[in-house]
Amino acid sequence: MAPSIPEKQWAQVVEKKGGPPVYKQIPVPKPGPDEVLVKIRYTGVCHTDLHAMKGDWPIPLKMPLVGGHEGAGVVVAKGEMARGIEIGDHAGIKWLNGSCLACEFCKTGDEPLCAGQQLSGHTVDGTFQQYAIGKAAHVSKLPKDVPLDAVAPILCAGITVYKGLKESCARPGQTVAIVGAGGGLGSLAQQYAKAMGLRVIAIDGGDEKRSMCESLGAETFVDFTKSKDLVADVKAATPEGLGAHAVILLAASEKPFQQAVDYARPRGVIVAIGLPAHAFLKAPVFDSVVKMINIKGSYVGNRQDGVEAVDFFARGLIKAPFKTVPLEKLPEVFELMEQDKIAGRYVLEIPE
Ligand code: NAD
Ligand code: ZN
Ligand code: ZN
User: Fold this and answer.
1) Any idea which ligand is nearest the CA of 99?
2) Ligand 1, atom nearest to 345 Cα
3) Residue limits of the Enoyl reductase (ER) domain (predicted)?
């Protein structure tokens, strides 16, 4: 028997750019022919949701908006053309809610680059609600024995850092500097890096983040709020002091994006992932050339990256701390995030 679906539901709705989100009742959406309706049980809060509320980026923004794009739950309805996923399956809704599936990028496994993409919690409503819509082709099918609270952050943060580490081409035994290591993406990046055989230098601020990073397997923690010479401290932690083989930039602030070349190893790869508003990547031409530095961007992951990132998690290799609070508390989570006070991730529990 199909589950009964109410007409109305609780949601956090951003009604004007800048917020705050308003906790209120709104209609439950109906899935289109190629879509599924997921009853969300847990959803992570990504810094991207805060950027979205503030209108930080030069891309279309739906308003009013239900944010959220790390939603894990159960499929309760599907359109007649939705393939590969059934009512009752556990599913995750990601940042990439849908793409055209027909353009050059979609055909070559680069669907995050599709010009026809839909973004959960930016161009379409996301997962800060009891029932959310996803394109059947893009929702992540989740194994039933995987806990829905802990897997939620994998759906954006996990996939993104896993993809970024692959883009860095760092090999087992090499050293990766993770900038913003104490945040949501950073905590997961340390776990994926470790599972991939990489050595981690964690860069972030404060004692709570230091002890979290040390427990997640970082060999060295450099505190950017206390270090007198961050570049020297990072280099000192790398083999022969020559710098990091890879730098993964996850901070939502601009400064580290202008500093990474200084502690990257010759031939090092710098992967920009964090998306601070109105920021620029700036690097000295001379050092970048004579050190043969490779600077690149990395944007979420494709559907197969999603499958692989969830698989690492399902095999028990990825354990990052998260705190669970009710959906109602989203404004408080945003306040803590704005002040860089969150070690790891917050996960919202959605009312039944
Ligand atoms: P977060 O707030 O949980 O973590 C950011 C961390 O950066 C915090 O721990 C903060 O203390 C730290 N930080 C701030 N300034 C720093 C500095 N100068 N040096 C070192 N660390 C510093 O945020 P999050 O959810 O992990 O997201 C991080 C960024 O990644 C956001 O901009 C988000 O929008 C972006 N993001 C990008 C993608 C992508 O596909 N490229 C995907 C998801 C998120
Ligand atoms: Zn496309
Ligand atoms: Zn995200």
Assistant:
1) 2
2) 3
3) 18-348
* Residue range 308-324, pLDDT digits in tens: 999 999 999 999 999 99
Cα(153) to centroid(ligand 1), Å:
14
Task: Pick the closest to residue 49 from 73, 71, 28, 26 (CA basis).
Answer: 71
Test site for ligand 1: of 156, 273, 341, most ligand atoms within 8 A of the Cβ: 273
The verdict on pTM exceeding 0.85 is yes
Query: CB pairs under 8 A, 24+ apart, for 224-227?
Result: 224/256
Closest CA to 196 of 158, 243, 251: 158
Cis peptide preceding 20, ω within 30 of 0: yes
Q: What tokens were used for 90?
A: 């556990």
Domains of the chain by range and CATH?
8-156+301-349 (3.90.180.10), 158-297 (3.40.50.720)
Judge whether residue 212 has pLDDT over 80. Answer: yes
Indicate if ligand 1 lies below 6 Å from the C-beta of 144: no
219-232 per-position pLDDT tens digit: 999 999 999 999 99
| Residue ranges near ligand 3 (ion) with Cβ within 5 Å | 46, 48, 156
The span from the CA of 308 to the CA of 168, in Å, is 17
List % helix, strand, coil for the chain (3-state, nearest 5). Answer: 30, 30, 45
Q: How far apart are the first and last CA of the chain?
A: 19
